[in-house]
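User: My instructor asked us to take a sequence, write out its structure as tokens, and then describe one feature of it. I'm not sure where to start. Here is the sequence I was given:
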Amino acid sequence: MSKLLLKTPCSTWTFDSLMACVFGIKVSDVKVYFDILKHGPSKINDIAERIRRDRSTVQRAVQNLMNAGLVRRKQVNIKDGGYYYVYEAIPFEETKKIIKKTMEEWCNNMKKWVEELNFEDVVKEYLENDEYG
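Assistant: Let's start with the prediction itself. The structure tokens for your sequence are:
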């Protein structure tokens, strides 16, 4: 089994689907994150060329990654005037720490939720509610 798959009793996760879930991004955005991480600070056009995607698609992905805190934008000033932006990914170890922390929070919240469940409320919800057939 691939090291990038996590099999649980209910489903199988890929690492990109886990990142998408944790950070609220698209699975396709994850490829852009790893491209920037591999190649270092990059311009949108360079990323688009490397991953063979349209510039506007990469721009949207980078915006999603910035909103999620996975990528930072830096302005580079041109000697004769003007500027351009490069995009830099946060280190993978930092990304892993965020994922682990988020998963711990989810697990703790789920444990608390299960602990607080009341039998009568559960029975009422599932046996008396027409939504569940």
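For the description part of your assignment, you could build on this observation: The chain has two domains: 1-90, 91-133. Try explaining in your own words what that tells you about the chain.
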